[in-house]
Amino acid sequence: MKMGGYGDVQMIDENGKRVDGRGPGDLRPIEIEVGVVPVADGSASIRWGANYAIATVYGPMEAHPRKISRQERAVLDVRYNMAPFSTTDRMRPGFNRRSREIGKVTSDALESVVQLELYPRSKIRVEIEILCAEAGTRCVGLTAASVALADAGIPMTDMVVSVASGKINGVVVCDLNKEEDNFGEADLPMGVLPNTGELVFLQMDGDLSQDEFQQAWDYNVEAAQEVHKVMVAALAKRYGGVQ
Amino acid sequence: MGQDGGSDESGSDCEVKLVTPGESLGPAGDRTLGHGVGRRGDSLIATRLGYVTEKGSEVTVMPVKTAYMPRPGDLVVGYIEGMRANIWFIDIGAPFNAILPMSLAPGKVDFGATRDAMDVGTTILCRVQEVDESHSSVVTMKGMGLRKLNSGFVDQIPPHLNALVIGSKGTMIQMLKEESDCRIIVGQNGRLWIEGEPEGVRLVRDALEIVRETGHAPGLLDRIKGLF
Question: With contacts defined as CB-CB under 8 Å, which chain B residues touch A42?
């Protein structure tokens, strides 16, 4: 898609239709598959729009290096990584400032639900690999990681669902795509616990008024319920039983 | 798990319900909390992905996967992961490595000669001797039948499904041994040592695959009998 520059691109028409044909509150299509990496203790792949990510969980296991272990609880070692081929500009392989940040916020969000105190001195390793990126990869990665944790049988009080809303051409919309993320005015990724509605993760980029913030918040909480249904259906598909 | 393989032989056609972490299991009332169940306000919630069962007043979630937690007296299959001059570090499939001091090794080992006795990668059959509050465990190889496993094959199932492989009063494991003509040792950490002819080993592995995939559903014994 050709884009003029910041601020002068029309990304939503007068009927509230966005560039990809969605309405303001609509999510991109989501598909989740559980158990895609058989050697891992838990794994999940997720397709969210054009995003494609795989999350794996190993452990609980002996904490290495020793210095990261905690006497009274397990540590979550989250690694977020974008494959070099995941974006149109080649992503330089390896750690960078952004991947460290996302690894940390993902770990913080998951720590609020995982019952780490059951496995003192050990480590739970979570690896998130983004294979194709189209805006909102931190949300995609966090959502896939919670499914993978559930698949690994890790005790949790809830599953984290993450969705981002934002603002384009002055209109608040749910689940930004690539163009909306690049040329929009604001972005509000959130991590929500679907069973209690609690908030475990929030970041904001750009400016939103109080009303706009409330609208984006409502979109995220509502969308989280929808995504949660997909997560539960994926787990049910893998493990059968009555849902 | 307290199931002792009973569920597979009773042939009950009750359907198992899958619950996800955080899912509500209804009001707490007088119900007691079993494995994998927590409390949120006045209601019970599942804290693991698994199948919910209700026996009497106790609600339990039988998880789809578990980590092995060592208990004293457990017979386990371990791998040597490392060593110092007088101890070995053993991977017993638990979240923490166990140690095997030289004094509990089979036979006499000289100080500094741990690697000569058992090198990294050696598979051993050992027993958990001690587990302290911080989950550190000590294993021993002094005892009947505890030894290096130089031959055979090791397969793994989630440890909570051990009871299903053994069956009530050992019926399932007895049947597997007879049908496959293999020697089988079930480690409590979910690792099974199998030794025999290749066809027999393959038969046991097929049976274990069935346990891994459909162990939770009723009628397991019939499905495994279908292999023979």
Answer: 65
Tokens standing for residue A170? 């002055």
Q: Is B64 within 8 Å of A61 when comparing Cβ atoms?
A: no
Q: Specify the pairing of strand B98-101 against strand B153-156.
A: unpaired
Model pLDDT for residues A100-139, shown as the tens digit of each residue: 999 999 999 999 999 999 998 899 999 999 999 999 999 9
Read out DSSP for B141-156?
A: --STT--B--SSEEEE
Assembly ipTM: 0.89
Distance between CA atoms of residues A90 and A86, nearest Å = 8
Contact check, Cβ <8 Å, B21/A156: yes
Q: A156 and A113 in contact (C-beta within 8 Å)?
A: yes
Cα separation, A227 vs A194, whole angstroms: 9
A232 with B20: Cβ contact below 8 A: yes
- Determine contact, residues B47/B55, Cβ cutoff 8 Å: no
CA distance A224 to B22: 14
Residues A79-105 have pLDDT tens digits of: 999 999 999 999 999 999 999 999 999
Report yes or no: A37 and A125 within 8 Å, Cβ to Cβ. Answer: no
Nearest to B216 by CA among B48, B31, B45: B48
Query: H-helix or E-strand containing B198?
Result: helix B198-214
pLDDT band at A241; cut points 50, 70, 90:
low
Cα distances (Å, whole numbers) of residue A203 to A211, A213, B174? 17, 12, 58
d(CA A172, CA A189): 13
